[in-house]
Amino acid sequence: MRPVAIVGLDCRFPGAPDAGAYWEMLMRSGEGVGKVPGQRWSARDFHSATGAEGHSNTTEGGFISDPDAFDNEFFTVSPREAQAMDPQQRLLLQCAWRAVEDSGIAPARLAGSSTGVFVGIMGNEWAQLHLTDYARVTAQVGSGNGYCMTANRISYHLDLKGPSLAVDTACSSSLVAVHLACNSLLSGECDTAIAGGVNVALTPALGIFYTQAGLSAPDGRCKPFSADADGIGRGEGVGAVVLRRLEDALADGQPVYAVIRGTAVNQDGRSNGITAPNRWSQQEVLSAAYRRAGVEPSDVTFMEAHGTGTVLGDMIEAKALGGLHATRSGRPLALGSVKGSIGHTEGAAGIAGLIKVALSLHHRVVPASRYATKENPALKLGAQGLRLLKTPLRLQNRTVVGGLSSFGMGGTNAHAVLESAPAYAARPGEAAEGPAAAADGGPTGVGAGVFTLSAPNPAALRRNLLAQADAVRRRRVPAGPLCWSSNLVKTGHRFRFALPAGDSAELAGALRRAAGDEDLLARLTGNPAGKPLVALLFTGQGSQYPAMTARLYQESPLYRRFLDEADAALAPHTRDSVRDLLLAGDAAVHGTGRTQPALFAVGYALASCLRELGVPPALLLGHSVGEYAAAVVAEVFPLEQAARLVAARGALMEELPGGGGMLAVRADAADLAELVDGEPLVGVAAVNGPRASVLSGDLAALARIEEALLERGVRARRLDVSHAFHSPLMEPVLERFARIAEEAGGGVPKLPVYSTVRGRLLEAEPMDAAYWTEHISAPVLFADAAAGLLEAGPSHLVEVGPQPVLTRMARKLRPAAGTQGHTVALVPGAEADGRELARAVAELYRTGLDPRWDAVYAEEDRQRQRLTPYVFSDAHRFWTRGPIRKSAGSDAVVLPSVPPTTQLRTAEPGAGTGPGEAVAVLSPAREPIGDPVERAVVEAVAEVGGYAVDEVSPLSLLYEDLGFDSVMVMELKDRIQDRLPGMEAISVQDLLPQLSSVGDLIGYLRGRTGSAVA
């Protein structure tokens, strides 16, 4: 058998709410067994007299806490549907989600894939309680029950298209499910498989059966292979693993807990009784699994036994193991069973054992087995080549093989052979205790990591930020790998949180502060809608300053790469290195011959970083010299040709004599025409917006214009420039520049360019030598070009330059253009600290872009770390109300259901409920709705979905927010018509196009009712 990797897992067992707690409990040989919670059934359903018909002999067992808690809002399940669902479906759904996250995959990324789901399940007690009350059977009760739905529910909510099935082979169910999952992977039927098991004890029925069959331990505890073994203690729980072919997991860099080398399943056939185990069949299933795995019995170091703690079961299992391992000389097989800690979890027993073995191989230690200190001498384990694990077994630092058995009460046996992950496989990151790593490694690709988290609502975001903060605080892992892992896993929901961080101590503190500060959280969170349309605005001359982007160059290898590239392209055409000029902080950057190449290099490097980071430029605009970098992005000409042209432009302008200047005027260009026309050596250099013009030309002429403006009360100020750019004084350089431009060439842009020479979008027009020559003396029509760009409706305005200039001017144009996009400045100015790209990536992610995350990080940071899985809300409770009671004149157990519109929520402390109990909380009524149509729709929607009326508003989306489906729509139609008897008949086909939101439905129905309900 080809190896199968366990790449992710999650579980919840008695005394262990998650995998970490499960392992901790096993390592201290703890237990999760206790009294039957009052939530389940009444103590009067037990009887101390063993064997008394209709009664159980114990009031104890292994029970998970709060099995009624379900985050229905996360999965967009209406309260009414959640109330009808078997808790086993709910538990599996949340467990599967967390296991997928643990595998290093965002669950949303599996949507549409051939991922298979295989669930082992033995009990269906919820159906026994609900489907026998015929008067209360609804469509939701129907789909909320049934074995198949435990697997199908996962496939539906994760949109998985592979095989999806539930299997019941009694106690071996979940290991058989793993066997089927492995076979499906190896046959190519699916590429990823989720395999799991679940068991929730809702009635005492099975306990009564065990008692009547002589199988139940009076103290409710399994004592595997112990001299005190006296029967089964019931347990419950849920577990799931994510499986992949080992070669695929290695190729994708997924962490590997352990490897499944072989599995086998067989049947007892006709034995001593249908519920009696068969030694020879158990021995054969082990042999078959060893053969499939390609191992000898002597290769197996430890065994997770079925180990129920029944005298007969332990005896037969020991003999079956002895038949293969009795000849081991000096190396007895280490034996244990998790049932001593959590009880016999029935349909989840196999997955409980599998996760224990996988974690043992991962941590390289096998926990001691509870009750092992008092070995049953009748088993003669030593003679069978076996020894009970009385203390933890440290595993050698080499390939180690372990086994796992799970036997079904009806005779279906399963065995799996596992081995430690290969040394070259990625390992799940350890959540080691200790201070967070304050001194992380070198810089990431953009100067810092970006930690991301997403959730369906702000409350969920805060809850998970706190969980991540606590987990990061305990880790000894640099921030880079933690951030990169969060980018892969913690995405896909409506509210997006992103935070740059340089080290994990900083990250832990920042996460906690964000969770506790509503304003800070709002600034770091986005709720984007629609697809991004990114406009890049390239800043022009005047934005330069000494050492611009020097810190970014030092901190960001990505920026360093592209600035070096631009510097190499400019080097043949400039007096000295642009890069060295910037790093030295030389004030010579203000000289025109250096300014223009430097701004071009910065613009090119920043834009190239954005493209590398996966930010798709859709619209381009450059202000004056900024248009050269924009042209390279638009593929007008290659970098080398643009570098030659911009260097020549700056050098030629610097050669011009002095005596020129520029004047910024608070007036429209049209209002200045008379003054400009009277001065031949002055022209309009730029029109940046309403009442934002720049004049350029001879200094004496500008002085005369400034004096005239002062008399009119018009504000004007001189700009600190060396020459009169974009004016008639540029005339002497045009001919020489034109010759160079002819050699450089220039074609039609391949992306939309809003030209500041033309003041509009270029329509298949080349940016050729004539264009660039005109560009020197023509006015910069920024206001017109930017208005045209804004009319295109960009979602993001990103300023590509050393400080924000153009985005500020664009904001003044935005009200007239009618767009509400996000503005992002890549570099804030001279106060830049080198994390600018990281902050920009965080902002772009929050506002709807999905960066190419690998480019954010250096290669050594791209290592998957196991993050704390999603923490679901436990505020909503869905259970049956009141104690179990017997119906009059019947032996049937009846558990009254919660009314459809009642939602159970956790009782607050002091509310008069016991631990784990729930209380019905009804939302207060809001003001009555006056409009009869709105009232009818809102009440019908609330009734069908099980919501309180005040939880439904016209803004509520029926599918995305309220979890409606086709069955609920049919019921909704009938309820609306009952409430609006004067309305003409409607069909489901009529309603479907109107069901985007409750408000849409109200509007549609108002048109259908006319005056009938006025």
From TrEMBL:
Example GO molecular function: 3-oxoacyl-[acyl-carrier-protein] synthase activity
Chain ranges of the Carrier domain: 928-1009
GO-annotated biological processes: DIM/DIP cell wall layer assembly; fatty acid biosynthetic process; macrolide biosynthetic process
Keywords per UniProt: Acyltransferase, Antibiotic biosynthesis, Phosphopantetheine, Phosphoprotein, Transferase
One Pfam family hit: PP-binding
GO CC aspect terms: cytoplasm; plasma membrane
Gene3D superfamilies per the UniProt record, alphabetical: 3.30.70.3290, 3.40.47.10, ACP-like, Malonyl-Coenzyme A Acyl Carrier Protein, domain 2
UniProt cross-references to CDD domains, sorted A to Z: PKS
Domain of life (superkingdom): Bacteria
Keyword check for Acyltransferase: yes
Keyword Acyltransferase: yes
Residue ranges of every copy of the Ketosynthase family 3 (KS3) domain listed in the record: 1-420
Protein name, entry field: Polyketide synthase
Species: Streptomyces clavuligerus
